[in-house]
Amino acid sequence: MKRLGSRVNLIPVIAKADTLIPQDLILFKNNIRQAIEDYHIRVYCCPIESEDEHITKRNQDIAFASPFSIIGSTDLVQRSDGQQVRGREYSWGIAEVENEAHCDFKKLRNLLIRTHMLDLLTTTEEIHYENYRQQQMASRQFGEPKATKKQENPKFREKEEELRKSFTTKVKSEETRFREWEQKLINERDRLNKDLEVHHSQIKQLELELDVLYQQQASRSGTIRR
């Protein structure tokens, strides 16, 4: 993990969190945090401070949840209230995937593909790649070719290429979805601004009409007195 943390954004998770009772899970998390600190393992820490207090509170909740406890399941199970949720059904109850009282899946999902995806990409480029580039510049002379890898098993290479293509496709899909969501927000903002301008114009028009009525009333009052 120490070597890996110097090359990529390392995000520790605890799999199968539904096999631990809450007290054991808290103890396990504390042990992992202590080990990370003792061995000086670099893990990804999301930015916390923000001008928006709500965003700051959300970032604090995400940072405090690390290492993230995860319950994995694609099955739909029915709760006692009739609602269907993704989770695992046991004799003692249901462990829900998207219930923050049961695990940190929602926090991890938000961190990876919603709230901090751009920061993860930026950190990879500006820190990890920059460190790699500096190491290469320090260890290689100018014009020296990069050391070639040993001959690898063609099956492994084919599998690696397949995984790389799959990962690239998923990233592009998420980027497209993010752009669509961003554009939707922009359109909604523009619509609200236009509605605000319309309401503002209507208020101005009503104020003008009210001024005219006041002037007419004042004129009539003056005529009656004369």
UniProtKB/TrEMBL annotation:
Keywords: Coiled coil
Highest taxon listed in the record's lineage: Eukaryota
Renumbered residue ranges of the record's region Disordered: 136-169
Residue runs in coiled coils: 171-216
Keyword Coiled coil found: yes
Gene Ontology molecular functions: GTP binding
Domain Septin-type G span(s) in chain numbering: 1-139
Entry keyword annotation includes Secreted: no
Biased composition (Basic and acidic residues): 146-169
Pfam families: Septin
Gene3D superfamilies: P-loop containing nucleotide triphosphate hydrolases (3.40.50.300)
Name of this chain's protein: Septin-type G domain-containing protein
Organism of origin: Rhizopus delemar (strain RA 99-880 / ATCC MYA-4621 / FGSC 9543 / NRRL 43880) (Mucormycosis agent)
The organism's taxonomic lineage, starting at the top: Eukaryota, Fungi, Fungi incertae sedis, Mucoromycota, Mucoromycotina
